[in-house]
Predict the structure of LysR family transcriptional regulator.
Amino acid sequence: MLIGNLDGMTVFARVVEESSFSGAARKLGMSKSAVSKHVTKLEDSLGIRLLNRTTRRLSLTDAGSTFYQHCARVVEEIETAEHALTDLRGTPRGTLRISAPLTFGQMYLPQLVTEFMEMYPGLHVDIHLADHMVDLVAEGFDMAIRITRLKDSSMIARKLADYTGHVVAAPAYLEQFGEPKTPQELADHKTLAYTNVASPNIWDFEGPDGPVTVRVNPVMSCNNGEFTSIAAIRGLGIAREPEFIVAEALSEGRLVRILKDYDPLNNGGIYAVYPERRHLPSKVRVFIDFLVEKFRGGLCNFHQAACHEYKQGRGRQRPAP
C-alpha cells in the first residue's frame, strides 16, 4: 500500500529532480544513506525497480519514469495542502528560493531581504544571482525578479517598477572620438555589448522619424551590465545601460547620456514572476506584496538608499573616471 509510503514517494521524486541521492539529501536535510533506504523501501513495496544505479549516475527505468509522473503530482498536492495550512496559520515558513539578476540583486536585495526577514524570522531565503534566464520549475525556484519586456506566458508576473535605458559614454571617450549624433554613426564607434539579450550586436531605437536599427561592432562583450558600465566609465567605448546601473555615474559626470532624441528601446519593466499554480504559497505572496510596496513610488525613489548601502558593502571601490 502506497498510502503508508508518502515519505518514500517524496524522497524518490526529489532524487529524480536532483539526479542524485546526495543532491536529494541536501534538499531534504537528510543523510544520503537515509535517502537511499527510502527509495529501496519504496521499490520493495512496489515490487519493481524504479532506478538504475551505477557508480557514476542514476537513470529511471521505464517503470520509474511512469511512476515519477504520478509521484510528482502527489507531492505537489501535498505541498499545496501544506501551503494552505500555513496560510491559515498566517505565518510563512520554509525556504523561499529567489532568482534575480546579478547587479540588481547586489544593489537592492540585501536591504530588501534583510528587512523582509526581520518581519518573517521563520523563513529561510535562498537567493541565486545570475544574469541568465533560469528555468524556475526545472531548477526549483519559487519566484524570480526579471528585468525585461516580459513575454513568457507560462509565468505569472506582477510588475514592480519601470526601468529606463540610456546610451552612455565617458567624457574622455567623447573628447577623443567625438559624439555620435545619430544611431547610424554608432557603426563607426567603439561599443560595449551586453550579451544576455537575443541580439547583442543589434541596437534598436525609436527616433523622431521612426524606428532605427543599427548593427554595432563591439570592442568588448560581457554578460553583466555593471561590468560594461565600468568599462564605459574608463573610456573603452559606448554602452547601453539600465538607468539603475549608471544613475550615479551620470549624476557625478563620469558618464554622459548621448543620442537623447532616440529611445534606445532597452526600456522595460521589473517584474516578480512565478510559475503558474493553483495555490500560490504564502511565502511567495507576502514577499511579492512586500516588493510592490517598497517600489510603489518607482525605482528612483528607492534607488538612493539602496545604492548607498551597496557602495558601503563594496568599500566604495569605484573606478576613477
